[in-house]
Amino acid sequence: MSAIFSPSLMCANYDHLQQEIASLEAAGADRFHLDLMDGQFVPNFAMGLEDIRCVCRHAHIPTELHLMICRPGQYIDSFARAGVDLIYIHPESDRHPATVLQKIVEAGIEPGIVLSPGTSIESVTELLRIVEHVMIMGVNPGHAGQIYLPYIDQKIERLLRLKPRLGLELSIDGACSAQRIVEWSEKGVDGFVLGTAALFGKPGSYEEIFASLRDAVGGGGGTG
């Protein structure tokens, strides 16, 4: 199986969002990555419920929603009605993260957790037994274009050792350059969120960039 590539629509051209959706799908995107920030859990705002509805309405590939908000459990029904397929939460964003994950499951959506640079594997051990999707942040959440934090490598290596036993799908979000994608894909990481490090604002068309990335990781498409 090849890598799963999820363009971060936070970095897309919002003047032509529907066109961006179509162009990225045609280029070979596997999922759309949607970042929702509330200005409290992280010091920034990104996307909104109407943006998410727009993407889900026009997308023909799965959508993954990355919630960087306080008390996400209050809003799961709204996101479910919007049409998202996968919801990631930060365990520290709610006092009872397992309850939030259960709400996601009950809404018919796949649940996932995100590990920020300061979130240890030990603090989410029990949650790893109830989710399949785990996203590791290579930067502190809240802003695009940050520099990768090299100490995250040890966390990824440890999760890769747990992956077969727990049946995890591992993804990396933040500073996913082409070189880093090749390196971690070869080691067993499944998915990569594509932002300004590898896709947006780079020379060449989306088609050319995706073709280059596919070729670098062994060709073929990912899974939806």
User: What letter string, H or E per element, gives the SSE order?
Assistant: EHEEHEHEHEEHEHEH
- Rg from alpha-carbon coordinates: 16 Å
Q: How would you classify the helix and strand content by structural class?
A: alpha/beta
Query: What is the typical, i.e. mean, pLDDT?
Result: 95
Question: Please, could you describe this protein's structure?
Answer:
The protein is of the alpha/beta class and 224 residues long. The protein has a single domain, classed as Alpha-Beta Barrel (TIM Barrel), CATH 3.20.20. 33% of the residues lie in helices and 19% in strands. It is built from seven helices and nine strands, in the order βαββαβαβαββαβαβα. A nine-stranded mixed β-sheet has the order 1-9-8-7-6-5-4-2-3. Strand 2 (32-38) and strand 3 form a beta hairpin. The chain starts with a strand and ends in an 8-residue tail after the last helix.
What does the secondary structure layout of this molecule look like, with pairings?
Blueprint: E1 4-7, H1 17-27, E2 32-38, E3 45-46, H2 49-58, E4 63-68, H3 76-82, E5 86-89, H4 97-106, E6 110-115, E7 133-137, H5 152-166, E8 169-173, H6 178-187, E9 191-194, H7 206-216
Parallel strand pairs: 1-9, 2-4, 4-5, 5-6, 6-7, 7-8, 8-9
Antiparallel strand pairs: 2-3
Keywords:
224 residues, alpha/beta, TIM Barrel, 9-stranded mixed beta sheet, globular
Tell me briefly what this model is.
The protein contains seven helices and nine strands. It is α/β, with parallel strands linked by helices.
